[in-house]
Design goal:
The protein is an alpha+beta fold and 139 residues long. It is built from six helices and seven strands. Helix 1 packs across helix 3.
């Protein structure tokens, strides 16, 4: 089965088995999800974005996320612009400060307001995205 067809939980288990992610990191992220993410996060435009456990497992495959899962919430709270995506999805652009450094993210939001994906990007990629079409919402 190709990685894009692999269920997120199965992929996490495979990555743990391969030594590419630690069980402790996954457990910590799941505790964060139970404590702060499971009921959703209200983004700056007032919408509630729901993060399912499956969504959490999907974004944890990125080592920049599983090492610091609090970045999920920080990225959602740092959304400054939302643009149309494919298939009715929306692409949210985000920036936040961490250790006196600016971080940038692209968040894919499903039609039903669930988190589809989160990618940390550099400032050049963020700038390119900001030039694509019209924004649906800006802070």
């Amino acid at each position: 089965m190709a990685n894009h067809e692999e269920e997120p939980k199965a992929r996490i288990e495979r990555l743990i088995g391969e030594g590419k992610i630690t069980r402790e990191a996954v457990d910590a992220a799941e505790r964060l999800w139970v404590g702060r993410l499971r009921n959703g996060v209200v983004i700056p435009n007032g919408e509630l974005i729901i993060i399912t456990l499956r969504d959490l497992h999907h974004v944890l495959v990125d080592d920049r996320i599983w090492r610091k899962p609090e970045r999920i919430e920080q990225a959602l709270l740092g959304i400054f612009e939302i643009r149309p995506g494919r298939l009715g999805r929306r692409v949210a652009l985000s920036r936040w400060m961490e250790d006196d450094k600016s971080l940038f993210g692209m968040i894919l939001i499903e039609v039903d307001n669930t988190l589809r994906s989160l990618h940390l990007v550099d400032s050049r990629r963020l700038s390119r995205e900001m030039r694509k079409g019209e924004a649906l919402w800006k802070r």
